[in-house]
Amino acid sequence: MSRNESVILIKALPGTVTSALDEVLASQGLVRAATRAIRADFTPLLNEPGEPLAFVLSEPQAEWLACWTSLALDAEWEVAETLARGLQQPVLCAIFAADRGMFAYRYWEDGDLRAEAVPLPGASALNEPGLLAELCHRGVPLALIDDLTNGWTREHIVLGYMHEVAHSAPNGADPITT
Mean pLDDT, the chain, as a whole number? Predict the structure, then answer.
């Protein structure tokens, strides 16, 4: 089974998550420069360096939605924590890096970190079945985390964020595609 390396899972409606992302990223000097619905492979957007920063939201499943980002892992975990505090809803950030033998997660509820399994020297490492069991325990549908590779025919919302000075694209072009 092929999975993206990391995903933020949020128990909230897409509009609520979009508003929260706008607030979180505005506090870092970023503004939303583009919003687009897409029914295609969006992984190239997640791997492009620089701006716009891409956030891709899935359709909700069992009250959860997935959010993939183009952020570095540390920044992604910070955004997940800030979302959890702001939304006061369950948020889980999971890492699936089988090629590096790394599986990890952090789970927030009511804005507080409630559980985590992160690689520590000398500690037994979490494996993929253990991470999947934890996601199931939290009520996350496994189909949702596989949505990146299996759900390209489903609609996803792509949000592009840029620093305010870089906000305008040349000739009114969409910064997601320029």
Answer: 86
As a whole number of angstroms, the distance between CA 148 and CA 59 comes to 11
pLDDT digit string, tens, across residues 62-81: 999 999 999 998 999 999 99
Contact criterion met (CB below 8 Å) for 55 and 156: no
What single string gives the DSSP state of each residue in the chain? ----SEEEEESS-HHHHHHHHHHHHHTTTEEEEEEEEE-S--HHHHH--SSSEEEEEPPPBTTBEEEEESS-HHHHHHHHHHHHHHH-S-EEEEEEEGGGTEEEEEEEETTEEEEEE---TTSPPP-HHHHHHHHHHTT--HHHHTHHHH-TTS-EEEEEEEEGGG-PPGGG--TTT-
Confidence grade of residue 100 (pLDDT, cut at 50, 70, 90): confident
Q: How many CA atoms, within 13 angstroms, populate the side-chain half-sphere of residue 160?
A: 22
Distance CA 116, CA 169 (A): 40
DSSP 117-142: E---TTSPPP-HHHHHHHHHHTT--H
In this prediction the pTM is 0.86
Residue 3 pLDDT greater than 50, yes or no:
no
Give Dmax over CA atoms of the chain in angstroms: 55
- List residues bridging with 116 in a β-sheet: 106
